[in-house]
């Protein structure tokens, strides 16, 4: 005895075989799920195209014949299951039929398919296929990771082992201390002050590049004087005038149990470590790499390259997370993927070339998990 299970849409593809089965009198039993068309396609159109149904059901352009009339036309015994209560009565009749048989099983056309491979929708609207071991409906992430032997992929589509974080604008909102330090330096040296917005628009750059953008047209020695005054205030007070983005500490704690975490920042390493220590998150990172104190700008791409070489990191399994175009460019120059965060000091336009852009720490968590 052969029992086949199919959907009403797929059943039409080889309908000519019913004639062969009938002629030979093969006792094949078909249970055909009638979801009024193409249920899988309908699910996709509902989940990813806001319910814009095209060619997936009777009301969107698909015609399917009456399943029982079709069976009778080929000389099959025909049955129908309308409710769950019918199954125990009808199934034995179908399986016990001497002739070939078709049993039509009516289901809600909008039922969600369970225990299936699926795609995860990224915050930017694109999607990535979820691995077969992570079937829908998905387990809570803590339970899923607890039962995994190897690290699974995630919504980035990258099998991540290492994650590099920018600091300012990604982990911490350091604007208060940086703005105060810039204004202190300008005031001490007699320059006209600038707006908070102008300073915020330059946070994330190296100190010298930031000063050149905020106060253009000065001589090199004047920028060095400003940098000295800036660091005077910043070391004394500015470094502590910052706050963590809400939820970032718990995210780092969770990630540190699954991945090797690093900080790569345009801030001097000693200042970066002060920030991490004051919030009690320094222990989550394998290494912290910043610039040297001085007046020569150091490109972030070089810092990333040095970290990759020093730690022997696999570029294909490494991800950079940052809030400025410089982070994205530096990562790409080193052949690693990027996730951009728009909650920092950058904007979506400058972050457009990132693999994924998220707007909140919660969205970042959903991407990485």
Describe the structure.
- This protein is of the alpha/beta class.
- The protein is 38% helix and 18% strand.
- The strands form four sheets. The protein has a six-stranded parallel β-sheet, sandwiched between helices. Strands 1-2-4-3 form a four-stranded parallel β-sheet, with helices on both faces.
- α7 (175-188) crosses α10, α9 (207-214) packs across α10 and α13 crosses α14 (325-333).
The spatial strand order of the largest sheet comes to 11-10-7-12-13-14
Q: Into which percentage range does the β-strand content fall?
A: 15-25%
The total strand number stands at 14
Cα-atom radius of gyration: 30 Å
User: What is the typical, i.e. mean, pLDDT?
Assistant: 88
| Largest sheet data | 6 strands, parallel
Q: Which structural class do the helices and strands define?
A: alpha/beta
Residues in helix, %: 25-40%
- Helix count from the secondary structure assignment: 15
State the distance separating the first and last CA atoms.
Answer: 45 Å
Order of helices and strands: EHHEHHEHEEEHEEHHHHEHEHEHEHEEH
Low-pLDDT segments, ≥5 res? none
Shape: elongated
């Amino acid at each position: 005895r052969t029992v086949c299970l199919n959907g009403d849409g797929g059943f039409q593809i080889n309908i000519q075989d019913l004639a062969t089965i009938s002629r030979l009198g093969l006792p094949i039993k078909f249970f055909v799920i009638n979801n009024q068309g193409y249920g899988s396609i309908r699910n996709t159109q509902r989940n990813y195209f806001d319910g814009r149904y095209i060619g997936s059901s009777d009301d969107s352009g698909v015609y399917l014949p009456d399943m029982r009339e079709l069976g009778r036309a080929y000389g099959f015994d025909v049955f129908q299951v309308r409710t769950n209560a019918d199954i125990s009565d009808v199934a034995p009749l179908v399986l016990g039929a001497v002739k070939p048989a078709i049993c039509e099983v009516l289901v809600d056309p909008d039922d969600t398919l369970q225990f299936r491979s699926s795609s995860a929708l990224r915050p930017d609207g694109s999607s990535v296929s979820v691995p077969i071991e992570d079937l829908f409906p998905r387990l809570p992430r803590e339970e899923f990771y607890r039962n995994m032997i190897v690290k699974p992929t995630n919504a980035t589509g990258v099998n991540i082992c290492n994650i590099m974080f920018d600091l300012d604008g990604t982990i911490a909102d350091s604007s208060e201390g940086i703005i105060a330090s810039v204004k202190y330096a300008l005031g001490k040296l007699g320059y006209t002050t600038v707006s908070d917005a102008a300073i915020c628009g330059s946070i994330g750059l190296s100190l010298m590049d930031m000063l050149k953008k905020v106060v253009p047209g000065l001589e090199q020695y004047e920028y060095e004087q400003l940098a000295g005054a800036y660091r005077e205030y910043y070391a004394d007070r500015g470094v502590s005038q910052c706050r963590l983005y809400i939820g970032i500490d718990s995210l780092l704690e969770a990630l540190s149990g699954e991945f090797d975490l690093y900080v790569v920042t345009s801030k001097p390493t000693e200042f970066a470590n002060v920030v991490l220590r004051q919030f009690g998150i320094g222990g989550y990172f394998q290494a912290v790499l910043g610039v040297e104190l001085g007046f020569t700008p150091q490109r972030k791409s070089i810092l990333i390259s040095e970290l990759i070489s020093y730690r022997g990191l696999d570029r294909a399994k490494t991800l950079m997370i940052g809030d400025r175009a410089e982070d994205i460019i530096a990562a790409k120059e080193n052949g690693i993927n990027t996730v951009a965060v728009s909650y920092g000091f950058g904007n979506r336009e400058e972050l457009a070339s990132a693999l994924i852009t998220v707007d909140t720490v919660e969205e970042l968590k959903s991407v990485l998990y």
